[in-house]
Amino acid sequence: MYEFEKYLAPSQEEVNELVRRHPFALIVSNGGGAQGAPTVTHTPVIIERLADDGGFVGGEMLGHVARKNPQWQQLVDGESVLIVFSGPHGYVSPTTYADDPNVPTWDYAAVHLTARVTVLKSAEDGLHVVARTVHELESLEPTAWDMTSSLPTFERIVGGIVAFRFDVIEQRAVFKVSQDKPRDVRQRVAEASRARGCPYGDVASLVERIGGDE
């Protein structure tokens, strides 16, 4: 992903929060698709450990796919995959700019992590990844579900998945949220997004929070 200089992530904390709150990622691996195209799977990928500096590079992520999904057989320990996290996004109409002529655009936030994969083949590792994933996703719920009584069920069905550890080696992030516009325009962009119902996540809050020069 190309990182536009004026749309760089405002902080590592914003990057971490986007990944934590939008864990339904794309795992992209080389080959396997039609005529050599990459293979992609949609699946939750969660943070196992951040690096010592609080960032992703040097940290670890966890994920899993269905064992019936042939992508896992294409993944070789130590090879690189791309993990794509999409945050809030939405169309921006020129009606919010209050001047003419103008052009529409799209506000969005996204994080791409390149990582070296390790296939975790044991049932114990698979159970750890599933339990960690449930714990992380339940932490986003108003009331977290207690998985304790369901762990025996997890143990019975965990053979149906293949788990991975991802050691992150590169991070790229773009937060393009109208920060190149004046405050009054950003406010209209946010209001228009809320009026539409923010169908692709709360991009309005990002537009309001991540301001540009006045």
From TrEMBL:
What are the top taxonomic ranks of the organism?
Answer: Bacteria, Bacillati, Actinomycetota, Actinomycetes, Micrococcales
| Name of the protein in question | Transcriptional regulator
Q: Which domain of life is it from?
A: Bacteria
